[in-house]
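name: query_chain
kind: protein
chains: 1
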Amino acid sequence: MSENDPKLETQLIDHLYDTTYADLDPAAVACCKRLVMDTIGVAFPGRSAPGVPEMVSLMASWGGERGASVLFEPFKIAPPMAAMVNSTMMHALDFDDTLDASALHTFVTVLPAALAAAEAAGKPVDGQTFIAALVLGVDVICRISLGIQRPLSWIRTATCGSFAAAASAAKILGLDRDQISDALGIAYAQTAGNAQGLLEGRLVKRMQPAFAAAAGVTAAFLASRGVTGSRAFLTGTYGYYPLYERGDLDEAAVIDGLGRHFTIVDLSIKPYPCCRMTHSAIDSALAVRERLTSLGRLERIEVNASSMVVEMVGKPFRIGKNPQVDAQFSIPYTVAVALLYGDVFLGDFEPEAVRREPVNALAAKVHVNENPNLAPKDILPAQLRAIGANGESLEVRINAPLGNPLRPVNDAQCRQKFLKCIQYSGISFDEARSRDLLNQIENLEHLEDVCTLTPPLTH
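structure:
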């Protein structure tokens, strides 16, 4: 494959251009609406998460009356910037969807990009067009990531997400085949997303998908004006796979079932507001907790997981400059919370909660070890062994975390999470407005203009 014959890119572009709402199966449409609900829901408490008010304040100083809406705010701003700040709200609490096979998030790039593009499109964008744009954007981020077999080295929510945001925005704008290709090539020119901020627990980690969302919106609008982008953006000499992923590419994983299987049905909805790589350990801890009466005081908790999980979220728990981020990316912390309180929710990641002495004392007893029998990037299984003062032990193995398609959450559970997020946020949003917003989302395919979604979400 070469710059003169980018077959993989051509197949993806043809898929994006040719596919419409009529080609989607009911399961894909249902998943899309559920994920719109979930992503908007987690934005409510995300609005006040560390780093977000600072970004909102900056955007307000640049904002005005034209452009695209910033959620929960009275001002508008340039569409890429609106996508950036809205994405940050949606991702700040790490409560948004995941593709467990690739350990990445999807809707925090495609949804804010699609919303911003719809407001700036200059014409009404109906619900069916919107759904198709989201489903196809998810297909892009998922399929590009599934072609990678290496463990996490980049934040692939960001590196793959810029392509996805560009694809969704391009479909919203009705770009032709060549323009869609240009949009993804322009997005590639802006692609970034290193994992250093994750390892250091810095607030910028929660903004990296937002940078990708902004890049995608910018790319789509530039392509609509005739700006050209690279065509071999995935497989060329300096394309994404050779440059970012050291040539690691399983092409079959990218194109298998293209146009027949929409990867949105493979996404997970999170029950806990923390890194997905902690969730199987949390589920294990909750299962052990139900049987703890015979163990007495816990002396040691051992968790076994894949090498990538150990590297990213398995280190001994330490509180640094950003306690919320430290806790979100820690198996020792989240397991301790689950064992002590029987749940892990938003309040457990407030700075004062993170500093609770009983939690920190128990977290110090949690040791995370690599299971050499697991594939390095497999985040699904975890095994937890709790050892009591009397030497007795309990052991639980979780093969897939709650919310995964193997253990799905239902519509009622999604609505409950949505309402709990609104309640926790402290944002004034009464029952009638919540009901009306849920009704719009659940009937999204019937909306004549999706921009009617945003007024109830702005002051």
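note: The beta strands are 68-69, 76-77, 298-305, 366-370, 382-388, 393-398.
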